[in-house]
Each structure stands twice: as C-alpha cells, then as structure tokens.
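Researcher: Before we compare anything, I want clean individual predictions. No alignment, no superposition, just each chain on its own. First chain goes here; please echo the sequence and then give the structure tokens.
Model: Echoing the first chain and its structure:
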Amino acid sequence: MQQPLDLDSGRTTEWFTPESGLRASALRVGTVHVGVSRDLLADRQRDILWTSLAVGASLLLFTMLIIQHHLNTILYPVRQISSRVSRLINRDYTKGPTGNRSSAQEVVDIERQLNELATHLANLETSREQTLAASESARQKAESANQAKSEFLATMSHELRTPLNGVLGMIDLIQEDPLTPRQRDYLTTARQSTEDLLTVISDILDFSRMESGVLKLSNQEFDLQNLIRNCTATYRQVAEERGLSLSVKFFGDWPDKPLVIGDAPRLRQIIACLIDNAIKFTSDGSIIIQAGCFGLEDHCIVLNCAVSDSGSGIPIERLPDIFNSFEQLQHGDDRSMAEPGSGWPWCSGSWS
C-alpha cells in the first residue's frame, strides 16, 4: 500500500494501481488492494509508542540497578577504609577485618596495612604513656629534692647567722679596749669580712627565691662610698699576700655624705666579683678600683665604677666570649677557668 484509502467517503472507485515493477512479458495473475483505517493506524502508532517507552524505561531502570550494584561493590570498601582511618584519628587502634571474597586485592592490602599501622600506633601510645608516667615521677622527685634543698639552704642560712652575729659582737667588744692602730685596722677588716659573709649567706636565700621567681631588688638607703671602701678592704689582705697593691680612687662630683637608695648587697656582689677576678688572675703589679659619681637632675646620680689590673688581658678576638661561664683558657703556664658570673680570667671590668 502506497497511501491510505478513505473507505468512508463513498468514493469506492478511487482505487490506485500499484506499480508492481513487472516486465511487459510478465503474466499478471491478479491485483490485491489493501485499505487501512486512519483510527486503526493511530491506535497502532500509540501502541508502538507506549511499548517503546515501557521497554526504554525498563532498560533504563535495569541499567541503573546494574550500575548501582557495581558502584556499591567499588565504594563500599572505600567507605570502610575511610571509616577505619577516622577511628585511627580518634585513637581507636582496634584491628578490623581484612575484606571478603568480593574485595579486590589492593583493598585487602590497604586494610592489612591499616591493621599494622593501628598496632604500631597502639605501641607508641603505650610507650608515650609510660614515658609520661616516668617523667611525672621524675618531676615530682625533682620538685621534692628542690624543695628539700631550698629548706636546707634556708635553715643553714639562719643557723649560720647566729654564730656570725656572735663574732661581730665579740669584735665590737674588742674594739672598745685600748688597741694599736694596726690591731684596730685588723679588727675593722675582720668585721667588714664578717659582714660580707653575712651578705653571702643572704645571697644563698636569694638563690632559693630566684628559683621560686619571687626575688625582688630592695630599695634601702646606704652610703655608697663606704660600701666601695668596705668591699675593697675585704680583699686588701688577700691582695697583699699575692704581692699586689690594691687601691681605690674616687673622682667626680661626690657629695660629703653620698647616701643613695638601692640594693646594696647586689652592688657589693658586682664589685666583689670584679676585684676577686682581678686578684685571682694577676701575678704581680697593682689593682685599682676607680669610682666616679656624676650628678643629674631630680636627685639622681650616675655611678661609673671600673676595676683594672696589670694582668696580661684578653685577646681582642676573644672579647665576645667574656661573659661565658666556665670558659677555659691558656694563661701563662697554667690552665685557668673562669668562675660562673665573673667573666674571663685576668680581665678588668667596668660598669655604670
């Protein structure tokens, strides 16, 4: 059929003759004419359309189910691995399963390695806890030892003050008797040395306070010139025994009675360290303490104090190391070592 035939119009004579393509010599037996209703054709088209849609939807759903199945097969092990890593981050080091028959070999290897990592982390955690426990125990022991040391230093310092105060009292009583100038000078030096020893004992208490972080500088009135003279007198006998001359010189704008406010023991410590260092590392010659006072406004002064000796001095290239504690050097034929806080051997010092 080449075109539909309208059978309802009553025009039954409008038949078409299809071209059969037969040759002229062919024998025509007969002709078949077919007619189709438009409604039947539309119904058939709708049936074909819905059937095609149903088949397409079924194929799409089936394809999605297959894809979902394969994705689950691939993504499930990845989710398991991700969950395992999250547990490791949260310090859960329990071992997990190493996959099933459907898992790929690579996934099984990753899970096995995660189990090994969990075991290693568990061991590290145990070692860390043991180390922390040992450190805590050592810290407590150190704190107990430090507390015992501080208590011992405090007790010893208080106990030493009593006999030293008795020595000072006896010196004061002896000074009331008739004495020669030489004897009086000796007693004065003995008293000043005893007072310095009391100051050193106070320094021991300061060390305990420094460890506790409560050390504070005191602000008390004292005579600045007397402090420098007394500190120098303490070392005069030691200097004379080594054949050294020890002298002190004052220059600048010194008042008649130079009373200042500050921490006298700390100032004495500085001067004493410089003098002791100079005596210790000077073989012959002299040691000179020079103290200069310069007045400023608002009742303030600048003190410049220098301790110089006739020792061999420090090489220029080693000057940056003068404040290193326990620095060992070659001094003449002997090996010398600086004391902590006193700088280098055979050095002179100054400060302001």
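Researcher: Okay. Second chain, same rules.
Model: Second chain and its structure:
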Amino acid sequence: MPPWWAAGTHGQTLAGHLLRRVHCRGQGERERLETQDGDFLVLEWFGGMPPRAAPIATAPLVLLLHGLEGSSRSGYIVSLAQALAAAGCAAVALNFRGCSGEPNRLPRAYHAGETGDLSFVVATLAQRFPGRPLGVVGFSLGGNVVLRWLGEQGREAAATVRAAAAVSVPYDLARGADHSMSGAGRPYALRLIAELRAKARAKAALVAGRVDLERTLRARTFREFDEAFTAPLHGFRDADDYYTRGSSAPWLSGIAVPTLAIHALDDPFLPSAALPLAALRANPAITLALSDRGGHVGFVAGSPWSPRFLAEQRLARFFAATLR
C-alpha cells in the first residue's frame, strides 16, 4: 500500500517526480556518438567511462532510456543508476535526439516507435565490450521503445542483450494519448505538450517545409501535435498510423529475452483496460510486476525525508540476478 502522504494516482506520480529530483541528484561523464545518418547521440556514463572507471569497467552494464521530454539526468534515471551501482552493475543512459540539451542536426526528432537509435547503441556497446553482460531498461516512452525493439529483434536480441525491463509503458499509444487528455493525466500531458511545442519552435528552420509549424504550435493535445509534427516528420501517414505502427503491445509475443515489466493500474497515461495483460502473461520471457497503485513512474514508499523508490529497487535486484 502507498504511504498516506503519497496515496492515489497524483500522490504517487508527483511524489515520484519531485522526490527523485531532490534525493537523486548527480550526473555522469558524457560521450557523443556520431550516427550513420550524420547526426549524433549523447550517452551519459554514471561512475565514469570504462576502461578508466575500474572496477566497474567489467561489471554488468545496463543501458537506460528516459521518457518523453526526459533526459539522462531525469530523477528516475539517476535514481536507477545509483541503485544499480549499489547492486554491482554499471549504468549508461541514452539521450534521445534533441534531449541532451543540444539540438540535433537533422530535421527529425525521436518518438515512441523509433528503435534504430537503440539498435545502434546496443551494437556499439556490444562491440566495445564483447562478452560483458548487457541489459536495457526504459521508462514510459523509453520503455515502449525497448519492448518494441525486443519484439522486432526476437531471438536475435539475445546475442547482445541478456535482460531487459520497462516501467510505466504506454503500450497502446492511441488510447494512451486520448486517455491522458481526458483523465488524471491531463495536467501532466499539458505540460509535456508545451515542452514539445517549444522544442518544435526551436527547430523551425530545420523542419520548414516538412511540417505545418503553425498547426504544430497550436496543438493542445498529443494527437494534435503528433498529427502536425511527429507523423509527417518521421514518415507516418497521420497520427493514427504513428500510433498503430509505434505501439509496443503487438510486439510483446516476439520478446525472447528475460524481461521485467513494471506497471500500475492507476497509471494516468494509460487506461487499465488498454493494458495488454493477456499478451504480457502469455509470454514466458516476460515477468509482469503489476500493482494497483503507483501512478506513472511513481512507486514511492517510506517517508518524504527518506523515500524508497520501489521500482528502482526491483530493477536493480532483477538485473543483478539476471546479468550475473
């Protein structure tokens, strides 16, 4: 049961966000990777970059993916990196394009169905550290990317990744986008949409002629933004096409790597009826950790002065056990 001071959807979601910002501060050493299409990605190594960061240079390594408009310095990323370190694992976080604090070069962004950059980073890490146990975990949008990538790769993913996890995933993008605007997720969604519009405005010169910028800047819902910006910029017919092709739910049956899925039924970004419980439970490679309460990337216990972040604790135990 959630503590009395962080009860309910908003209590868990807000407590998770605010308390991680207060109690989970820190940053790592950043590395820029040049991509094959002429752009770049930024990795953040917690505890230092190997091989200089002994003894973690040979420890199991976990790649962390943030959520919508997050970054490698989001509270839940830093919190998990700290929990992994305590469990004997190293952590490196991927910043999606445009999320490292520096605009990316190309007229594109990131989205929930984009798995190419994850494939590139996993291959890079596997080539650098042959034989080193590698895991991958994503939060929210990042979790959707992880699960979709695992489903696409099928058994081939096991050649590079030994374990995976996903937290608070919007498995059905269409139902998640619509639900978040009409229910408890509305205040969070409005803030995220404002951040997305600001980022689109900053890329105006780069995306000119590819998107309807005026329509983008008028967007007040996820669907309106994705219709005007995300879909045309990334080759989708419209928002529905993006939601259909980008959702992770249809790919769950293809996952062959041991995977932990953490979710709360009161997640404000996905109606509980849209949670693909049958598919999650039907795949023996997936372990579902489902709770009635937890909000969106919440899962907070303890006290405000000494909080415990239950998702990170569970993830650290899972990766420490599975990767070793």
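Researcher: What stands out in the second chain?
Model: The chain has a mean pLDDT of 95. Additionally, The chain is about 40% helix and 15% strand.
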